[in-house]
Design brief:
single chain; alpha/beta; TIM Barrel; 13 strands; about 40% helix; Glyco_hydro_1; glycosidase
Length: about 450
């Protein structure tokens, strides 16, 4: 047995997260266009076992069942993403009404169950037509993104209060454009840096478009990690600082402070035009943080193309993905953000946190993982950090990008042959734990601080 969770503040928002390409399927329905993940996953050797998101969890057709699972779980919010190519098949021009109709139905169904919809506008499934024009290496993509945001908020903004612009721009830049392990599969290494600026510019333009259409709450979700040097050697310490700048500060500083950190400002050079940083630093109502594990960094080897080298963290249990489980790292991350940004730091939502485990419904490992990380969030709140929500990744087993269907992150097990959903032990634990963690069952977002 796990001890009951401590009480969280009134109005603290508990939810689950998913992403469009990972669960929707229906890639050829309602006029949806081709995304970079359609192309990537259908390219031989790009994904494990050649897996694709063509069907995934068939959420497009089975969303009423999935919303019933959310309602039964007792969470107050659902963070999902909207597929840009379902709304604009070529990434620009007039919206596809049939595609927007799906999200219209989804939002209505959530609200009928008393669940707050929290849509993310971009979770990596860029329309292939835009990638053919340079993708996020092309500055114009930022403007196309703002236009897309306008179309979506015009359709859904009468019922959707809270919006997330981008999900994990660091991961999309690094895995998609620098290392090539994600779509679109480019291997530019440090030459991928323009992708960071153009994504952030897109965020700022989209934030302004959302506000112009009456949106009251706007945020971005960044993947953040506490960084520790592998040793006390000056090379390790410097490498850790450089990695922290690339992974964390490159995406937090311009949004919160209106500037890029030191050497990265120099590296971006003429890419940053007059007025760009004012757009990027458009005020936020909250900051989304995705946390999975700390990162240990050492000095690079002689032949390394990067100025740092990631090293394993020993002495902790690991998930099925091989990631170390360090709940205290989440507390450290949150208190570190407060120390770094002070009054510039808005309220925080943990918009993703979860783990992959072995297949099967008996997942005590995940129960212990969630219990530890929820307590870590509570510790950060007790230390004075304004954290207002926690979203589990993920509601369902899903298409885990390049790893295909080999990694199981769901509170609910999915049989991908039959699409049968089976709640795991962790689902039942969280269902019960939430009763002790919230006061009076309130799921209402208290609004900007």
């Amino acid at each position: 047995m796990v001890d009951p969770l401590p009480l969280f503040p009134d109005g603290f928002l508990f939810g689950c997260s998913t992403a469009s390409y990972q669960i929707e399927g229906a890639v050829h329905e309602d006029g949806r266009g081709r995304s970079i993940w359609d192309t990537f996953s259908h390219t031989e050797g790009r994904t494990l076992n050649g897996d694709t998101g063509d069907v995934a969890c068939d959420h497009y057709h089975r969303y009423p069942e999935d919303i019933a699972l959310l309602a039964d779980l007792g969470v107050g919010a659902y963070r999902f993403s909207i597929a840009w190519p379902r709304v604009q098949p070529t990434g620009s021009g007039m919206p596809n009404r049939a595609g927007l109709d799906f999200y219209d139905r989804l939002v209505d169904a959530l609200l009928e169950k008393g669940i707050v919809p929290v849509p993310t506008l971009f979770h990596w499934d860029l329309p292939q037509a835009l990638e053919d024009r340079g993708g996020w290496l092309n500055r114009d993509t930022a403007s196309y993104f703002a236009d897309y945001a306008s179309h979506v908020v015009t359709r859904l903004g009468d019922r959707v209060r809270r919006w997330i612009t981008l999900n994990e721009p660091i991961v999309h830049m690094a895995q998609g454009y620098a290392y090539g392990s994600h779509a679109p599969g480019r291997t530019l290494m440090l030459d991928a840096l323009p992708v960071a600026h153009h994504q952030l510019l897109g965020h700022g333009l989209a934030a302004r478009a959302l506000r112009a259409a009456g949106a009251s709450e706007v945020m971005i979700t960044n993947n953040c990690t506490p960084v520790q040097p592998a040793g006390e050697d000056a090379g390790d310490v410097t490498a850790a600082a450089v990695y922290d700048a690339f992974h964390n500060r490159l995406f937090n500083d311009p949004v919160l402070l209106g500037s890029y950190p030191g050497f990265l400002a120099d590296a971006l050079g003429d890419l940053v035009r007059d007025g760009d940083l004012a757009v990027i630093s458009t005020p936020l109502d909250a900051l989304g943080i995705n946390y999975y594990n700390p990162t240990q960094v050492g000095a690079p080897g002689e032949d390394s193309p990067l100025p740092f080298e990631l090293q394993p963290i020993e002495g902790y249990p690991t998930t099925a993905f091989g990631w170390p489980v360090v709940p205290s790292g989440l507390t450290d991350l949150l208190t570190g953000l407060r120390e770094t940004y002070g009054e510039a730091l808005p309220p925080i939502h943990i918009t993703e946190n979860g783990c992959s485990t072995a297949p099967g419904v008996h997942d005590q490992f995940r129960v212990d993982y969630l219990d530890g990380h929820l307590r870590a969030v509570h510790d950060a709140i007790a230390a004075g950090v304004d954290v207002r929500g926690y979203f589990v990744w993920s509601l369902l087993d899903n298409f885990e990008w390049a790893e295909g269907y080999s990694q199981r992150f769901g509170l609910v097990e999915v049989d991908f042959d039959t699409q049968v959903r089976t709640p795991r032990d962790s689902y039942r634990w969280l269902q019960s734990a939430l009763l002790t963690a919230r006061r009076g069952g309130s799921a209402a977002w208290p609004g900007p601080g």
